[in-house]
Fold this sequence. Notes:
By secondary structure, this protein is an alpha/beta fold. Helix content is about 30%, strand content about 20%. Strands 5-6-14-15-16-17-19-20 form an eight-stranded parallel β-barrel, surrounded by seven helices. The chain has a four-stranded mixed beta sheet with strand order 7-8-9-10. Strands 11-12-13 form a three-stranded mixed beta sheet. The chain starts with 14 loop residues before the first strand and ends with a helix. Inosinic acid binds next to β20 and α12.
Amino acid sequence: xxxxxxxxxxxxxxxxxVPGYTGPDCIPANVDLSTPLVKxxxxxxxxxxxNIPMTSAIMQSVSGExxxxxxxxxxxxxxxxxxxxxxxxxAMVARVKATKAGFVPSDSNVRPDQTLADxxxxxxxxxHSTVAVTEDGTAAGKLLGIVTSRDYRVSxxxxxxxxxTFMTPVDKLICAKEGVSLAEANDILWDNKLNQLxxxxxxxxxxxxxxxxxxxxxxxxxxxxxxxxxxxIVGAGINTRDYETRVPLLVEAGxxxxxxxxxxxYTAWQQRTLDWIHxxxxxxxxxxxxxxxxxxxxxxxxxxxxxxxxGIGGGSICITRETKGIGRGQATAVIEVAQxxxxxxxxxxxxxxxxxxxxxxxxxxxxxxxxxGADFLMLGRxxxxxxxxxxDKLLVNGTYVKEYWGEGSNRARxxxxxxxxxxxxxxxxxxxxxxxxxxxxxxxxxRQSLAKVRSTMCNVGALTIKELQDxxxxxxxxxxxxxxxxxxxxxxKSSVNK
Length: 498
Ligand code: IMP
């Protein structure tokens, strides 16, 4: 006879937090959002911690190198997507590790034979007005010049004008040499009244730009997540098929932590992958998942996972529940797995952090997931909306949007994530291809969301995530009281003015 869970499984929107006592010191500025990323023994400190409880989803449309740097600057971590060749993934990791605070790899590049139309297109796409002109049109090619908005007038020039005729050539530019410090670079910017400073290798290849506008931004990144050599911390997704070739390349590239990316993690394949990594790279930290109950958690805990991801079917682009009928309401899954984690800790003295993956729609869901026991969150849709995600920003029906597609969609074709040991192909889709509303720079969005989380924590009377978990009082809400939770029985001015 099948096993039945007595209660329906529930999701975040069905819960609210009931406030606790707020003491005089319990103010948002005193809230500490740091949280363990990997397992640790009672009384010890985890080897890796996050400064904010956020990680970005292991997805093509989310976790590229630019987002990884932006998120590490805010104190979180990205897991670079694994649904690409191992070589490309390792190269992305290596570029994140090579990025130095304040030194930015150029994201807008052209060859000298390209045209004004290409420059205009690039500016529209990236939102950046400095374009590097390199011999081969790549970010690391030999620098021949730069184009900024001062170099052209779209209304007066033929779109077919070649870049070489209006760029500022490299011999008229002030450049710095490899090895220049950020303080020196900033002095050069100020002394020469420049907006950007190209930093070049000995042979003239472009390495980075240092921008005047980033000066304040860098100084105001107190939460940056850095390794002992002051490089950004970055993770990478792996699968249960090609780990023997992929993991060595990622380790070589300097990856800090790995995560097995799978839609369902209670499998022999995950055990094998963990065993192989532990045997061959004993110091490497690796997370596993996804699971949605205590049994799945215990399996991966005993298999040696450093953290465990929770969630099946709750992702915004996910149609797993509709296609295969597997999954569980995200809140119920987190609550049950958090209990299992606490029991495991009592029995063994080993604390294995859990990550609530998918289904965060409103900022308050973040506070709820943490209160329910998650140590940190993984977000896809949320991060895909920002400038730094790897996808195109488009204008659709008068609104700016970004593209966001699931790893189980035909577009991503990440068959390894859905692999159950059969043919190497995706027989049916478990994800959709979509648009999400564009939301500007990551740092603004993350700071705004976390300001709300801090505020909620103060209402609960908690200054740390651990305190939030210990003190939270959660109540289920009826369907009618959910209606009461939004603006109601008023005529919204925005609807009158439409
Ligand atoms: P979101 O934050 O609600 O958008 O959910 C992101 C999460 O959805 C990811 O971290 C994955 O666990 C999951 N996911 C990614 N792609 C797919 C897919 O194609 N189908 C089902 N789940 C997916």
